[in-house]
Amino acid sequence: MDYFYGPGRNHLFVPGPVNIPEEVIRAMNRNNEDYRAPPIPALTKNLLEDVKKIFKSTSGTPFIIPTTGTGAWESALTNTLSPRDRIVSFLIGQFSLLWIDQQQRLNFDVDVIESEWGQGANLDVLASKLAADSAHTIKAVCIVHNETATGVTNNLATVRKILDHYQHPALFLVDGVSSICALDFRMDEWGIDVALTGSQKALSMPTGMGIVCASPKALEASQTAKSIRVFFDWKDYLKFYKLGTYWPYTPSIQLLYGLRTALDLIFLEGLDNVIARHSRLGKATRLAVEAWGLKNCTQKEEWYSDTVTAVLVPPYIDSSAIVKRGWQRYNLSLGLGLNKVAGKVFRIGHLGNLNELQLLGCLAGVEMVLKDVGYPVKLGSGVAAACAFLQNTTPLIASRI
Ligand code: PLP
Questions:
Q1: In the CATH hierarchy, which fold is given to the domain comprising 22-267?
Q2: I want to staple 338 with a disulfide (CB 3.0 to 4.6 A). Which of 94, 176, 195, 308 is the partner?
Q3: Inter-residue contact 190 to 157 (CB < 8 Å)
Q4: So which domain of life are we looking at (predicted)?
């Protein structure tokens, strides 16, 4: 048997896919519909307008695509660039590594800036590359806002400042898969040309929807970009936007209704409140890690992530044993260490539709698991540190005041 029933809820604390709120589950529990009849175009029109808000963009053009984050990457790259274009990309963990692999396989000339895993993007090297590029051979700068493998958040405002400082016209392409709807993200203000996310992260939906937002400059670039694209070609989407039918192929009716409810919940709480909640949960998690006497994989405070914390374990412990034990004994799902940090870190995802007490349940579970695997943790230490902080900072629920 490969499936074991566990009583109660599974405590899902991997950094995506995350918990889906009941309201979203119920909204998706419906029959198919004729997508050419008036309701679906009307629903889509509103979704396209509303989804721009999660990017903090008014000038962008969104594309809601039945794909995952990986497909959203491909959409961003192939619509704006041509084979052999030189692009600068930062390698800081498993997801930036996978994006770079895709960039290379799509035949771009990728100039990789590598940092130790646990560090953020090296923006000094970016500055020197842009300074040396008066001929403007660099066509795009690609960056993962939040590296989910190491819990590192990069500073996008600084990237924009550097591009502006050198008056460099490179496109600014951003993976916001584990940041958008959870971390401060300002597409227009930071001059981002393409931003993208996936539905199973902070939007708290099932996997299967990639959402891409393109600036006017990115749309212009798409007119001359020569990369081969078919399914992801923005031209086809724009043609159907103009026609008012919106879909060049059959949309997932259920996911569209799910997105409607997911956005409604985010707007009901208030996007800025959602971001503040993530900041609180991130800080509470880090306080617990400190109280356990363990180290954050993220080397500097400026890169701390409010959506995922990668916890370094002592060398005598294999971090995968922690993940395995959490699942086997406490119905707790934690994130494994990936690639270079496999066995060395376990990850606590604290993103999406999640509240303080859910997080405390996870932290209590981690403490018991740590004791199980032979780490001398004082039971209750991390929970107490997190509680002390959360008791002081958790606001009343806005709709219940
Ligand atoms: N980018 C980041 C930062 C991610 O965390 C992930 C997945 O976890 C991806 C991209 C890839 O997304 P997907 O698995 O939806 O293709």
A1: Aspartate Aminotransferase; domain 2 (3.40.640)
A2: 94
A3: yes
A4: Eukaryota
14 CA to middle of ligand 1, Å? Answer: 12
Distances 146 to 94, 247, 298 between C-alpha atoms, Å: 11, 31, 11
Q: Whose CA is nearest to atom 5 of ligand 1?
A: 148
| Residue with token string 């995802």 | 349
Judge if ipTM > 0.95. yes
- End-to-end C-alpha distance for the chain, whole angstroms: 48
Atom number, ligand 1, closest to the C-alpha of residue 179: 3
E strand or H helix at 212 = strand 210-214
Question: What are the pLDDT digits (tens) for 81-134?
Answer: 999 999 999 999 999 999 999 999 999 999 999 999 999 999 999 999 999 999
Q: Which amino acid is at 292?
A: W
**Which architecture, in CATH terms, is 11-18+271-400?**
Alpha-Beta Complex (3.90)
List Cβ neighbours of 272 (8 Å cut-off, separation of 6 or more). Answer: none
Q: Give the pair of three-digit tokens for residue 28.
A: 């998706």
210-214 vs 61-65, strand pairing mode: antiparallel
